[in-house]
Amino acid sequence: MTFSEDQFSALAASVTGAVFRRGDKGLGAEVAGQNTTVVHDPDVVIGAATEADVAAAVRFAASVGMPVHVLATGHGTYAPVTDGVLITTSRLTELSIDADARIAHIGAGNRWSAVVAAAAEHGLAPITGASGNVGVIGYTLGGGLGPLARTYGFSSDYARGFRVVISTGEVVSATADENPDLFWALRGGKGGFGVVTSIDVALVPLTTFCGGALFYDAPHIEAVLSLWAAFTETAPDEATTSVAIMRFPPLDVIPEPLRGKTAISLRYAYIGDLDEGERLFQPFRDVAPSFLGRVGEMPAAAVSMIHNDPTDPVPIWDRGMLLDRIDGGFVETFLDLFGPGHDVPIVSAEVRHLGGATRVDVPEGSAVGGRDGAFAFIMIGAPDPSLFESVLPRVADGVTARLAEWISPSTTINYTGDLSGPGAYEAAWPPATFTRLAAIRSLYDPPTLFPYPPISPGERGAQAFPHGEWRGSDSTPGRL
Ligand SMILES: Cc1cc2nc3c(=O)[nH]c(=O)nc-3n(C[C@H](O)[C@H](O)[C@H](O)COP(=O)(O)OP(=O)(O)OC[C@H]3O[C@@H](n4cnc5c(N)ncnc54)[C@H](O)[C@@H]3O)c2cc1C
Fold this sequence. Notes:
single chain, alpha+beta, Uridine Diphospho-n-acetylenolpyruvylglucosamine Reductase, domain 2, Uridine Diphospho-n-acetylenolpyruvylglucosamine Reductase, domain 3, Vanillyl-alcohol Oxidase, Chain A, domain 3, 3 domains, 7-stranded antiparallel β-sheet, 13 helices, 25% helix, globular, disordered C terminus, binds flavin-adenine dinucleotide
């Protein structure tokens, strides 16, 4: 597909934000995201500054027959966009809090950190993810499981309304009352519906909680992991916890206490009485000495400090899945795969405890996949792009085979990581949900202007299907 000079000039004249064509100076910086291995090279980039800019970009793409892609922070981008129109949302930073109604109105360019800070001024908190650096919309479209998930559930359960530019260029609202099918889809169905320009989310009253993280050195990994696995059997819904066996390279950029170490990080958040939170955590203080970190009273605004995810752009490779259960056999196998003394190019092998509120759908239903998952498991590969093509996928396949008896057949889209593996996209929702999502995409995007999954056509080969051609399947999706 191509466009004329006149068509491009008309677009540029109608957009208040930035407009680039392939090869233009500044395009590279405009499309740079969190994952430094992904270098986008679309035909046209629109740095939208207003909702009208988004609509103009969509209408332009429709008129010249080009696909539309969206880039917020690049935390969830694994393959480069090589064609069509790429809309960047970073300038859409409107953000307001209605403290009485406990609602945040959030433009598509916001990261969670901005919303957390704005809500905290009113003694309120959004149900955010682990990293404040992740984009609110991309995250929430995928459901979203954060450090308070067992108490509050999926973040998309708190979405109260979306404004979306659909394939006609019209702006539509999606709420429980207006376009409820689209509202259902946007709460967990991820992409392929349009460009979300803003979202309203419900906030919860929260000023402090008992939480934080402790790091334990290699000799204590087994004891901490075993205690944690036992803890999850009886943990109340007020407690959300996770563990990660982490390998820190002996590089100067790594802070001294962690440099060159293999350690386990135990993350904890208890919502409720602070003394009860402390009491529940005491066994983790007694089991072994920790060498770094703190657990205690935390301001709600510091929730993203629990996981302490990196904020600087890095090469990202990860793969995740849900687990049905864990037990002694799981702990043994996990240690055999990731424990000290093993040479494995996985810098973080993390297991998060789910359940509690994550199992409860919103009354009107939503498209989130993986509500029945008991744990989420995610592997982050060594940030060496030369390993991304075949070494890390092979290692992850081997790990998956070893953990097969604990892996759930269902998963949730924010946790799949790279979607290029066979069946990974299809497995992110129950078959009936996947089929309904495809039908809703066809309804709001008949020309398939918003390709989904967002991977270049050639890369998915036979798996790339326009919305209308998907026929669905009654079989249990095969995972990995
Ligand atoms: C360090 C790190 C920590 C993370 N922590 C968590 C976590 O705790 N819990 C969790 O559930 N997930 C987590 N994730 C996964 C994350 O939620 C997803 O990768 C999410 O897609 C990132 O969204 P983004 O907008 O920041 O990224 P982007 O890569 O910019 O966008 C990701 C996808 O969302 C779509 N999208 C973004 N904005 C819009 C829009 N306005 N309209 C339509 N589509 C849009 C894009 O098209 C793209 O396909 C984490 C990821 C990283 C790298």
